[in-house]
Amino acid sequence: MVRVGFVVEGYCEKILLESNNFRDWARQHNILICEPIINARGGGNLCPKNINASITECHRLANPDKIMILTDLECDICVTATKARIGGDVNQVVVAKKALEAWFMADTKAMRRWLKNNDFQGENEPENTQDMPWDRLKEIAKSYHKEGRGPGTRKIGFAKIMINKLEFSIERAANHPNCASAKYFLEKLQKLT
User: Fold this and answer.
1) pLDDT tens digits for the chain (193 residues)?
2) CATH topology of domain 2-98+178-191
3) Is there a contact between 68 and 91 (Cβ–Cβ < 8 Å)?
4) Could you give the CA distance from residue 78 to residue 5 in angstroms, rounded to a whole number?
5) What gap in Å lies between CA 32 and CA 24, rounded to an integer?
6) 3-state class (DSSP) for residue 31
7) Measured on CA atoms in the order 40, 46, 48, 52, is the torsion positive or negative?
8) Mapped to the 3 state alphabet, what secondary structure does 95-146 carry?
């Protein structure tokens, strides 16, 4: 079993990787997710001048065989630019296109649970929303008359609900025909073994 350590951009990615569903998937693929997952606390800390401290911390505390970085594309022009900006001595850098919330939209089953509406047919282009995926989630909530302000104002709280309560599945997101970065994430993780 390969021991994989993670350095992540923020709390939402950390919540995903610490979830039981994700850890179960990893064990099925002979991957042990090392503790702790290192939260860089923002994409600005995933740059050459700051990344080495997080990588060193991951090596020291988690003792992994391999290290992977999980971050968002945000406003970078392309994935290659994001990877080049990060640098660092890691085995793999995976970039969620635009933001992790696109992966949530790609899991139609979890979205139906969140909306409490089985008529939701899924988001056709979760990684290619006009604005950021967070904004699209708010639009979806409004169109389905979701009580309150939709996903709320805090991404962390929404991530906890999607992952822990509504059983978001990275596998279902990866199976979406237009969520290539989730599929890439699982494929690259499996190739570390």
Assistant:
1) 999 999 999 999 999 999 999 999 999 999 999 999 999 988 777 877 788 889 999 999 999 999 999 988 776 667 777 777 776 667 777 778 889 999 999 999 999 999 999 999 999 999 999 999 999 999 999 888 765 556 766 899 999 999 999 999 999 999 999 999 999 999 999 999 8
2) Rossmann fold (3.40.50)
3) yes
4) 25
5) 10
6) strand
7) positive
8) EECCCCHHHHHHCHHHHHHHHCCCCCCCCCCCCCCCCCHHHHHHHHHHHCCC
- CATH 3.40.50 domain position(s) in the chain: 2-98+178-191
Residue 132: what residue type? M
pTM: 0.91
Structure-block tokens of residue 144: 């389905």
